[in-house]
Design goal:
It contains 28 helices and no strands. By secondary structure, the chain is mainly alpha-helical. The longest helix is centred in the first third of the chain and has 39 residues. It is globular, with a radius of gyration of 24 Å.
């Protein structure tokens, strides 16, 4: 089958990504093998509509242990008044953040305070940090983000000029693979020399970028945060250490100082660097334009942005073909472009792959300051980046875990999947890649992510090994809650799969009925049941 025979992550990297919107894509003819991810985005779904109690095998074997997400026990989300009451006089979370994380695990976060809470959940702030420490971190993150945006602009400008010079020098060169630096240094072409005179210098590019800082980083940054924002070099940035410890499935290098990340990017050859960035940039802009508008109802301030402000930001990041969008969607797309380009340089090993915009879109809908949104996205990608690795190791590991959960919980269903040659669970591929973003509504996605993030913070901070020992027995935090939830989706549909499906294609065709059909709290309740039963076996 297609999903089994083709290297999936290579398909993510293909440059033939000129597809239109999701709705448009579904009406087109099947793509060629060179753009198989387009096909995967439309068919790799799994149906998980709410089943009757008689068809769900994940409602037993738990005994007296109850899930924090059970409908009988579900509590309200963390409220603004409760949030403020969690801090002491120095601005530190009481008891090291234990009550804070427990509250989020049982009900999520009230929408009005998400912008304040998420930086804690996504590692921008340590759960044990003070107000003064957070002020320092926030100012530094702003400087770092401004520096990354400067680099994006410089690389983009140099890429444009190198392309023009290649066009000029193309007829005089017998080597189609001529390095960009050779074009810049060639003294034998009068036209090239003339063109070179118009190339902006690094200093000119920096000055131009500084003029755009207010657009790129939003205007409501305090003076304390902007003290060093006019630095022209990443060498002026202060070194920072990871705020949280790493786990086996995370990469601590993503918390290295920005100047180190920039140095790593600069070590690549000039031509390779420009080509990679140009490819990432093109795909980012396409994906940004296609971003859905589900977020609008949850972000009134961004939904009411003026047309002038939206177009100004769009022009500053080089966004094109956005005339058909309303101002709020133009503004949203431009912010996606700015932050995703910065991340592509920051983590050049991953760069950009389709699907990453799905993960960033909810973050920028909640957080209006780009430098904070970027830092939160870095924290999110610290684990999620493995979904986009070219070697596919991260994806295959997660699919293997889903397969093991199903095998341990329901051997009969697993044997049926084996008959269909679907035991590798590639039919849940998209769920894993974009963390249920396409299968859940906007609000449901945020609820699931918040609970998942709270688990991960608790594990990284070592809370489960000390003060949370009693909670560990009743509802053990897990780094793989998402995978248990995905397995729960499949198990909820076991009866239909066993009785009605006789091929992988039939499962895939049924997948489209899942979107919008899930009860996210029932899903997490079933996922927790699986954690209690199987966490020691997986």
């Amino acid at each position: 089958m297609l999903v089994q025979k083709q290297p999936l992550m290579r398909a993510l990297r293909r440059s033939q990504t000129t597809l239109g919107s999701d709705s448009t894509t579904s009406s087109r003819s099947p793509p060629s093998s060179s753009s198989s991810w387009i096909h995967l985005r439309s068919v790799l779904l799994i149906v998980a509509s709410s089943p009757s109690s008689s068809s769900s095998p994940v409602s037993s074997d738990r005994g007296s242990i109850k899930s924090p997400w059970s409908r009988r026990r579900r509590k309200h989300a963390l409220l603004a008044k409760q949030w403020k009451g969690l801090f002491d006089a120095d601005g530190k979370l009481s008891d090291g953040g234990i009550k804070f994380l427990k509250k989020i695990r049982t009900g999520g976060v009230e929408p009005s305070i998400r912008a304040e809470v998420w930086p804690f959940l996504l590692g921008m702030y340590d759960v044990k940090s003070s107000r003064r420490e957070r002020d320092t971190i926030r100012a530094q993150k702003r400087r770092e983000y401004v520096e990354l945006r400067k680099q994006c602009r410089q690389i983009s400008k140099r890429g444009e000029w190198s392309f023009k010079l290649k066009e000029i020098s193309g007829n005089n060169s017998n080597d189609d693979g001529l390095d960009v630096s050779q074009v810049f240094d060639s003294p034998s072409m009068d036209e090239t020399a003339s063109a070179r005179q118009n190339i902006p210098t690094s200093r000119e590019l920096v000055e131009q970028e500084e003029e755009d800082n207010d657009i790129i980083t939003n205007e409501n940054i305090s003076e304390a945060e902007t003290g060093s924002s006019d630095s022209d070099s990443s060498e002026d940035l202060e070194d920072t250490k990871p705020l949280l410890g790493s786990t086996e499935t995370e990469d601590s290098h993503l918390y290295e100082p920005i100047n180190i990340a920039l140095e790593k990017f600069e070590t690549s050859s000039s031509s390779s660097k420009l080509q990679d960035f140009a490819t990432w940039q093109r795909i980012i802009r396409l994906d940004a334009i296609r971003a859905n508008a589900e977020w609008i109802n949850f972000s009134p301030s961004q939904a009411s942005v003026s047309e002038a402000k939206a177009q100004q930001l769009a022009e500053s990041v080089g966004l094109k073909d956005y005339e058909h969008l309303e101002p709020c969607r133009i503004y949203h797309a431009a912010r996606l472009v700015a932050i995703l380009e910065a991340y592509a340089i920051y983590d050049s090993e991953i760069g950009y792959c389709q699907g990453m915009s799905d993960l960033l879109s909810p973050i920028i809908s909640v957080i209006e300051e780009d430098h904070i949104a970027f830092s939160c996205f870095v924290g999110f990608m610290r684990k999620a980046r493995h979904n986009f690795r070219l070697d596919e190791v991260g994806i295959r590991r997660q699919l293997s875990i889903v397969s093991k959960i199903i095998k341990c919980k329901d051997p009969y269903l697993y044997k049926h999947l084996e008959k269909l040659q679907a035991e590798d669970c590639f039919f849940v591929y998209r769920m894993v890649v974009v963390l249920f973003r396409r299968e859940l509504t906007f609000e449901q996605t945020l609820c699931l992510w918040e609970v998942m993030w709270a688990d991960q913070v608790a594990i990284r901070a070592g809370i489960v090994k000390s003060a949370w020992r009693r909670m560990r027995v009743r509802a053990p935090p897990t780094d793989d809650l998402l995978l248990y939830a995905i397995a729960a989706c499949v198990l909820q549909k076991r009866k239909m799969i066993i009785e009605n499906y006789s091929s992988m294609d039939e499962i895939m065709r049924e997948c489209n009925s899942m979107a919008g059909q899930l009860d996210v709290w029932k899903l997490m309740d079933d996922a927790h049941n699986l954690v209690v039963i199987l966490c020691d076996k997986i």
